[in-house]
Fold this protein.
Amino acid sequence: MSDSRVSSVIQEWAYPGQAHPHHVSTNHLAQMDMMPYSQPQGPARGGSDEKGAEQVMGLSYLPYNSSCLINPPSVGSTNRHQSHAHTQQDFSSFLLPTLRAPVNKRSINKNSTEYRLRRERNNVAVRKSRDKARRRVLLTQQRAQELQEENQKLQTRIGQLTQEMDTLKHILSQRRMHAAEEGPAESDIQNQI
Amino acid sequence: MSDSRVSSVIQEWAYPGQAHPHHVSTNHLAQMDMMPYSQPQGPARGGSDEKGAEQVMGLSYLPYNSSCLINPPSVGSTNRHQSHAHTQQDFSSFLLPTLRAPVNKRSINKNSTEYRLRRERNNVAVRKSRDKARRRVLLTQQRAQELQEENQKLQTRIGQLTQEMDTLKHILSQRRMHAAEEGPAESDIQNQI
DNA sequence: AAGAATTGCGCAATAC
DNA sequence: GGTATTGCGCAATTCT
């Protein structure tokens, strides 16, 4: 509920090599709801795996967290992602110094194993969280459905009871009249109801 | 419910110019729920605008839809996105011909105005759709809440009616006894209820 | 202080 | 053809 996320303003700086992949989408056919959200092992989880992408970076442009990319030549991509490519694009070395805006920030090496690990862990968490959300929504819908049905039944029940009440009251009033004719006394009905 | 999306296997082919940006995120502070999902005009919608990015491309490697990128020199970015940069990166012209794998597919120029237009329209649609989904979920939650409350009231009402019924029945049985003492007759109560 | 959980976003595939 | 949905990964934040 507290979404004060200032949103990310990512600036592409690498003048020439500025592209930064991203997407590297994978197959995600298995929606398995039972799976413990294991890391999408190589070809697992989808089918063919993803690749791609080594981006020079995407730095955010925010006051509290703008990141510059210092894409070091460490092209040794060890992750299934960004398997190939990025053979040349370190323009950053001479381009960014000029264009790069918030040069003062933490640099994140998107090729580092640590980065990939964090990303992968987050991806797992994201999938888990979304599954959870989906289930929650479904449960809420079901609950609403059930409540609606129960409501219907209760309404019906109330209708029946009300009718019975009317009948009884009618009968009682009749009785009272009869009783009055014979001998005016015992007027407890009015008081009791 | 029919999510047969085979997932996308995006292959980065541009040997050298292969990077493809992506992200270019913008500030999205305004979550405005009233806005008609207008295209994120320049600085509008967030604050600072996004830029960046022209990637050489990312082609999918699927049987039914693998796309190659034929990033033509048409670097003339006209969109607010990728405002600057992409001043030179047409490696594709001489690199892809060699490495490009599934050369037989539709080529998508990610720098084309048409592509950006489509993307932007889709982004708008996505935002709209998600807002709608969010509202739907909220409504369902509210409805469940209301139904729950109404249910409570109905239950209470039924409790009251039931009790009154019992009282009336009790009174009637008393009366009947009295009536029986005086003169056994008119036994309509049992039949009427 | 660090990792997990959330959430907005854009992309691409696909449903409509 | 175009919009609407949906899964996904990223990054910023929040929660623990």
About this structure: The longest strand of chain A covers residues 10-11. Strands of chain A lie at 10-11, 59-60. Residues 7-24+40-111 of chain A form one domain.
